[in-house]
Design goal:
By secondary structure, this protein is an alpha+beta fold. It has 2 helices and 6 strands.
């Protein structure tokens, strides 16, 4: 099993879409994640990959827990157009 984090740079926030994790309730640039790769074995013949929320300590699956930031803003128009990293935005 291997862990990897896709790089994030502050300048990447310009013009890119954001996602919100329903588990830790923090925003991140869409497409960034922590990858966990599982090696194939006798029971699972194909390698598997799990994409998790990019924040350390959060185990939200990006396929299950990620929302588009624009969807969250429909419910909370007071939230900024471009969210801040590491800030909790309550649903």
């Amino acid at each position: 099993m291997a862990h990897a984090t896709l790089p994030q740079h502050p300048s990447d926030s310009l013009g890119l879409s954001w996602s919100w994790c329903g588990r830790c309730q923090r925003a991140y640039i869409t497409g960034t994640c922590r990858l966990i790769r599982f090696n194939p074995d006798a029971l699972h013949t194909h390698p598997a990959m799990l994409k998790l929320c990019p924040y350390d300590g959060c185990y939200g699956n990006t396929a299950r827990h990620a929302w588009q930031w624009s969807t969250l803003r429909v419910q909370h128009p007071e939230y900024p157009v471009i969210p801040e990293r590491n800030v909790v935005y309550v649903r």
